[in-house]
Predict the 3D structure of the following.
Amino acid sequence: MKKFLASLCIIFVVIPAVLIGGGYFLLEKRYDGTYMFGTYINDVYAEDITPEQMNEKLLGFLEERTIMISTREGEIELPLSRIDFAYSYEEELKKIQKQSGTAQWAQRMLERGGEFTDYHVEPVGSYDREALKTFMKEHKELTDRSGQTDIRVEIQKTADGYELRDDTLLILDGEKAAAAIDAAIMDGRDRVDLEKEGCYIPKRYTSAMKKVLWEWEDVNRLQQSQITYVFGSNEEVVDASVLSDWIALDEDGNFFYNEDGILTYDKEKVKAFVESLAKKYDTTDKVRRFRATSGREVTIKNSSYGNAIDQKAEVEYLMDTAPRGVSEVHIPEYSQRAFAEGDDDIGDTYIEVDMSIQTLYYYQNGRMILQTPVVTGNTRLGRGTPEKVCYVYYKQRHRTLIGPDYRTPVSYWMAVNGNIGIHDASWRGKFGGTIYKTNGSHGCINTPTKAVSVLYDLVEIGTPVIIFY
């Protein structure tokens, strides 16, 4: 009986114990220094991998970090590679490997019903703090100013307008800034705001500084507008870079307040600006090159046609509107407008008078509508019709033309250049040819009644007229 019991003990106790012990030994040997079967770390399967190997794997998933440092003077980007920043998971990975022996692994497998184990670890960062100090010294916005004594508050003129220099806002405590940046790096943040972190030292204003600040409010008010002038396809922007030049100054270059204690623009400077626009965009005195119907290219130096800015109106507009801090698109007032937009503002609707062949043409939208012979000014008597680019500025039916030695009624009158106009001449039996040389008009463009009646109905006020030999 004893032998039987001993046999049962060997079968059911000793042999299983030996098998379990052997299995335990084999598992310990199999996974010596590596992670056991069924182990995940940060969702990466870790069986047979050492902590060092797993560290390299996990580091491969990380992107290079950059921290944005916000200062009162702007933002600075700090790539962490500049300060030799490095991550490592090794410390936590080694702890997991040491704590995951065969017994612990078997216990967890039993507790989890055979499910695999997934660990989550966070990397530990480190960097060269001397490199951070060097980086901060390279950027004036991060320079320690806690000991600064030359604190200035002043208004400075730049190419972009007046700017306020207020050193009281920029007194940075370098140690606090370094600590705030260090905390952001180690906390894994991608941004740090030095103002919110309390890294700036408050400074009280002196009475002189307060005076500058009050003055700055007036100066800044006068350069807040942005007015975009539109000249056809061209634009001129009036912003702080322009407005600042208009602010009134005294002989010493100080801001000039009028008798009401108000800082305003110097009107003469505004006038000069408007004059510069007129010089650039007015086309009334423009030398014009014109392709005649005959195919010739003619150059006409005398012109009254084109755009002319109403300078007085524009000065008043700017003096009134610019101080309000507006942002608007503005088409200027004109004392005279061209019939068409663009560089070639004659366009494709116009009257052409080719005096070399005594012929008048009328083009409408690029198509010739009318062609007629005419008689222009008497050149023998020095009354030749002048070459000019002008325009129809007045129309009248049944007008009496009066001169020193004549009083002549006409049925159709279109004034184009002072007292010179296009009109009918019922007293003439012929037109064209060389009549103008010895029997021409006093300067007007005599036109057959039938032709001028048609022209009168077609032509609008403002239509350009090109007169040339």
Remarks:
- The longest helix spans residues 2-30.
- Residues 4-10, 17-27 have pLDDT under 50 and may be disordered.
